C-alpha cells in the first residue's frame, strides 16, 4: 500500500496549522505512519497462517480465527490512519477555495488565504472535532474487538464445525499486545493534542472578540 497521498496531505495541512497542529502532524507521521510501515505491518502480516488450533477439523480453524479476529488488525489500523487524517482535507480544500476565489476576482480578498480566521476557523474547528470523534470511535472499536486491548496466547473455541472446545494459539501475543498498547497511547496523545488545539483556538478567538467589543465601547 502506498502512503504517498497521506504523507502529502499531512505535509500540506502542516502549513496552516498552529503549534499544536504541527506537533499532531509529527506524531501521526513519525509515531503512527512510520511505525505502521516499518513494524506493525510485518507483525500482523501472517496472522491467519500463524493462528493454530489443536485439531485439524476442516473449517474449524477458519471460523475460530474469524470469531476472535472479525476485522484484520492491520487493515483496521490502516483505516484508522486514513480516517483520522482525512478531516484535514477540509482545511486544504477551504484554503484552495480562497485562492481560486482570489484568482477568479483577480484581486486580493484575504490578507492571507491560509490564515485561520473567519470561515476557515470554523472549518478548522470542525476538522478537529471530527478527528477527536474518529479517534474515540476507533479506540472503542479496538477495545470491543480485543477484549480491553488484550491479546491472550491461548483462546478456547467451541464454534461449529469444531466438534468440541478446542485450544487455539495466537502467534507472538506479547509483541502484538505491546504494539497495540503503543497504538492506543499514540491515539490518546493525538486526542489530547486535538483537544488542546481546539481549546487554544476557541480561547484565542474569544479573547479577540472581547478586545474588539471593548475597543468599540471605548470609542
TrEMBL record:
The keyword Nucleotide-binding does not apply. Residues 42-75 form the Connexin N-terminal domain. One of its GO terms (cellular component) is connexin complex. Keywords: Cell junction, Cell membrane, Gap junction, Membrane, Transmembrane, Transmembrane helix. Residues 134-201 form the Connexin cysteine-rich domain. It is a multi-pass membrane protein. Its main location: other. It is found in: Cell junction, Gap junction; Cell membrane. InterPro entries: Connexin, Connexin_CCC, Connexin_CS, Connexin_N, Connexin_N_sf. The keyword RNA-binding does not apply. It comes from the Eukaryota. GO terms for biological process: cell-cell signaling. The chain crosses the membrane at residues 20-39, 78-97, 118-143, 178-203. GO terms for molecular function: gap junction channel activity. PROSITE patterns: CONNEXINS_2 (PS00408). A connexon is composed of a hexamer of connexins. One gap junction consists of a cluster of closely packed pairs of transmembrane channels, the connexons, through which materials of low MW diffuse from one cell to a neighboring cell. Belongs to the connexin family. This is Gap junction protein. It comes from Hippolais icterina (icterine warbler).
Amino acid at each position: 500500500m502506498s502512503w504517498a497521498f497521506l504523507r502529502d496531505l499531512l505535509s500540506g495541512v502542516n502549513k496552516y496549522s498552529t503549534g499544536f497542529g504541527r506537533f499532531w502532524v509529527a506524531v501521526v507521521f513519525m509515531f503512527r505512519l512510520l511505525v505502521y510501515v516499518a513494524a506493525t505491518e510485518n507483525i500482523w502480516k501472517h496472522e491467519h497462517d500463524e493462528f493454530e488450533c489443536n485439531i485439524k477439523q476442516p473449517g474449524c480453524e477458519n471460523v475460530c480465527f474469524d470469531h476472535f479476529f472479525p476485522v484484520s488488525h492491520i487493515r483496521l489500523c490502516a483505516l484508522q490512519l486514513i480516517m483520522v487524517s482525512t478531516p484535514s482535507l477540509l482545511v486544504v480544500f477551504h484554503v484552495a477555495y480562497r485562492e481560486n476565489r482570489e484568482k477568479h476576482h483577480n484581486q486580493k480578498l484575504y490578507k492571507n488565504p491560509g490564515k485561520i480566521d473567519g470561515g476557515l476557523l470554523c472549518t478548522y474547528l470542525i476538522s478537529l472535532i471530527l478527528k477527536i470523534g474518529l479517534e474515540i470511535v476507533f479506540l472503542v472499536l479496538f477495545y470491543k474487538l480485543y477484549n480491553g486491548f488484550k491479546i491472550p496466547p491461548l483462546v478456547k473455541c467451541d464454534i461449529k464445525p469444531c466438534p468440541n472446545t478446542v485450544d487455539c494459539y495466537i502467534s507472538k501475543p506479547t509483541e502484538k499486545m505491546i504494539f497495540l498498547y503503543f497504538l492506543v497511547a499514540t491515539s490518546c496523545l493525538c486526542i489530547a493534542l486535538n483537544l488542546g488545539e481546539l481549546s487554544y483556538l476557541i480561547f484565542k478567538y474569544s479573547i479577540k472578540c472581547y478586545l474588539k467589543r471593548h475597543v468599540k465601547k471605548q470609542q
